[in-house]
Amino acid sequence: MYRFIFLTVKMGSLVDVTFKLIRVPLIVQHCPCAGDVQEAAQLLANNEIRINCLDENGMTPLMHAVYKGKADMCRLLLQHGADVNCNQHEYGYTALMFAGLSGKTDITSMMLDAGAEIDLVNSVGRTAAQMAAFVGQHDCVTVINNFFSRARLDIYTRPQGVDPEPMLPAGLAGPLHKIIMTTNINPVKIVLLVRDEPALADPSALQRCCQVMELLCEQCMQQQDMNEVLAMKMHYLKCVLNKCRAFRQNKDDQLETLLRSLLRGRDTDGFPQYQERFIRDCIKKFPYCETNLLQQLVRSIAPVEIGNDPTAFAVLSQALTGQMAFVEGDYCMTCGEKGADKKCSLCKSVVYCSLACQKLHWFTHKKMCGSLQDQEPKPQETPRLKELKGKGNLLQLSRPTSNGRKTVTSTSRDHSEEDCRE
């Protein structure tokens, strides 16, 4: 019987654990404060330490750190070579699955950046996204479903074949990857990302980005395990970037004209008609007409009169991010960013994520602000989730992954209770 010191991520210090195994690796982990991370770093400097040792349940130190939400310890363990895809847990859980269960989007992103595979399944055949969906961690589901490896984009920063120049200059890879990885696909938000990125100020830079996005869309459809969802996202982002390029060619350097067009509401109710038509047009231009995704989107949007629910943005957002649309909630009226908490000081009826967004939206909101002030305030309600229904219900949409398995959106609740076993 061997005796080992195991540093846990529980709120405490060293826990002396006795393992009744002939061979058990030595290691590791803890992190209630920065000092403990430094102490762990000193221990990990020992070459005899085995970073991927298992406890009695088959959990590695990284799994413990992930599930407890200890980002600093996760980063340290990864730097020392922790296996992000180890699935020797008694129920086949991986670090990414524990990240989804914990609800920590930053740690979920960290696992993905470290090479976590999204299509690994546990003992009951569930992926990390499905596990996160089962326990209601919708933000983690969105992060997983929208992940796109930077390495796939960096390929275009190197000359291919006989071409002497790369298709994408190295300086554009970072800004473009940031746009691809965004989980907020509101066109205003994407235009703001373009406006605030100096590398994308030149229309020719946007043209190069559009060409790469078109190729990525094509690859998603032609690869062995076709990914319609990612292909649609690439196509949609290309349409927005192309619109930015067109407006900049017409001397709209700061894209103010484009932003005002997307935000301008009709006089009767403030509904942004141009934005709705633009998104519908983007969907109609998707070049792969036979795909199930496109047909479902069209069936959900086509019968709806402009100005009614569901909007094209709500339907598309659900399809691409895997989340239901909120009827009411803390979403910025300008850019759609979640967590908006700044109400209009006059009508108290709309919220914004920042003062800049409020100023940007005022030119159109002021037409409705007075009438909203005259309305009797509604009692405060908890934001309600709304099913986006149509002849083809998007809630049943499956999401192909790299090995051909299907992952469901975060609205699905068809998992067994075994999914939450620890």
Automatic annotation (TrEMBL):
Keywords, sorted A to Z: ANK repeat, Cell projection, Cilium, Metal-binding, Repeat, Zinc, Zinc-finger
Gene Ontology cellular component terms for the protein in this record: cilium
Ranges of compositional bias, category Polar residues: 395-411
Boundaries of every MYND-type domain copy: 332-369
Feature: compositional bias, Basic and acidic residues: 375-390, 412-422
ANK repeats: 57-89, 91-123
Localisation: Cell projection, Cilium
Annotated region described as Disordered, given as residue ranges: 372-422
Keyword Zinc in annotation: yes
Alphabetized InterPro entries for the sequence: Ankyrin-MYND_dom_contain_2, Ankyrin_rpt, Ankyrin_rpt-contain_sf, Znf_MYND
Major localisation: other
Protein name in UniProt: Ankyrin repeat and MYND domain containing 2b
Taxonomic path: Eukaryota, Metazoa, Chordata, Craniata, Vertebrata
